């Protein structure tokens, strides 16, 4: 059970980020406790990716503070890189690279990388070690992207739309891996459009709308808040319904 006495893996306070005149994130605050799976949900363009990119130290906030285990990930990028693992976008890997070569390449970026063989085994990729990236199935590519995010032995791992485009079996396989990470003490920040995924996996969820936090809580708490907002009993609501109620209600 998550409590506020647990150390913060990620603490975002009053985050603001604009692209030109477009306000992407507007005074957003959230706190992710160490060891939890924390979901970020919200409509397209809500500012989810911008928020996690600030947490990864890839973008400089215009205002507010971001701390990962107490460290400013933009200012102290070198240190933050050893703490935060990020899932890679498909386009970042060469088609001809084999699974083992990709892991070894990424391992070379870190002073104390995880053992390649152990990672292959952990992600069920041992028999694919010599398979080129382009020949992997969608689920295998996803497992490789998890392996690459784990190469630096991070304490926080960020997944942005981990299961988009996967079939139901591969989605469930990814979910099991995310749960295993949490069981191994790794904090997981999960950006997703799938309410069922958040409901099944996340200890807590932040709902973001127009760069602001519309709600935070456990999936059960959000379902109850959404149902009460819409005037329905929560027994007739799921997280999908709650997200719609809480994000369309505010601006209409
Ligand atoms: N590099 C950029 N330059 C200009 N505008 C950007 C840039 N990146 C994002 N935006 C804009 O900022 C807003 C927030 O984008 P962001 O990608 O953070 O949202 P998101 O919630 O992750 O969206 P989605 O669910 O569609 O991936 C959007 O209006 C988007 O068009």
What does this structure look like?
This protein is of the alpha/beta class and 252 residues long. It has a single domain, classed as Rossmann fold (3-Layer(aba) Sandwich), CATH 3.40.50.300. Helices cover 35% and strands 24% of the residues. It contains nine helices and nine strands. The protein has a six-stranded mixed sheet, sandwiched between helices. Strand 8 and strand 9 form a beta hairpin. The longest helix is centred in the last third of the chain and has 16 residues. The site of adenosine-5'-triphosphate has 11 residues, from strand 2 and helix 1.
Q: Any guess at the CATH architecture?
A: 3-Layer(aba) Sandwich
Give the overall form: globular
CATH topology: Rossmann fold
Q: How many E-type strands?
A: 9
- The number of helical runs is 9
Please give the share of residues in helix: 25-40%
Low-confidence stretches: none
What's the CATH first level?
Alpha Beta
Number of individual domains: 1
Mean pLDDT: 90
The string of secondary-structure elements, in order, is EEEHEHEHHHEHEHEEHH
User: What ligand molecules are bound, each kind once?
Assistant: adenosine-5'-triphosphate
Strand order of the largest sheet: 5-6-7-3-8-9
**Fraction of residues in β-strands:** 15-25%
Task: Summarize the biggest pleated sheet.
Answer: 6 strands, mixed
* Cα-to-Cα separation, first versus last residue: 35 Å
InterPro entries: AAA+_ATPase (IPR003593), ABC_transporter-like_ATP-bd (IPR003439), ABC_transporter-like_CS (IPR017871), ABC_transporter_ATP-binding (IPR050763), P-loop_NTPase (IPR027417)
Membrane topology: Peripheral membrane protein
GO biological process, one term: response to antibiotic
GO molecular function, one term: ATP binding
